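Review this chain:
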Amino acid sequence: MTASFFVYILASKPNGTLYVGVTNDLARRITEHKARLVPGFTRKYDVNRLVYFELFDTVLEARAREHSLKRRRRPWKIALIEKLNADWRDLTEELSF
């Protein structure tokens, strides 16, 4: 069985504050962010809208992608989000696992 790892981008609102993270359980992690259970940046800036995510087979691939996204400038990240989610919808409700 192949493990699944996710790289995700959260936003506070459309074109708002962005956060890039990685997890092996996207549904659980987003639930934690929305319940404000995660101390730090996302709770401080109310960043809990899932606007983008990618799936990877290994944690090494996911961590490499996370690192790559974090190095990118904000306009590049916004273009990435808007390519697949132009309306900045919260994708949480669309998750099916």
In short: The beta strands are 5-11, 18-23, 49-56. The chain has one domain: 5-94. Residues 5-94 form a domain with the GIY-YIG endonuclease fold (CATH 3.40.1440.10). Helices lie at 26-34, 41-44, 59-71, 74-84.
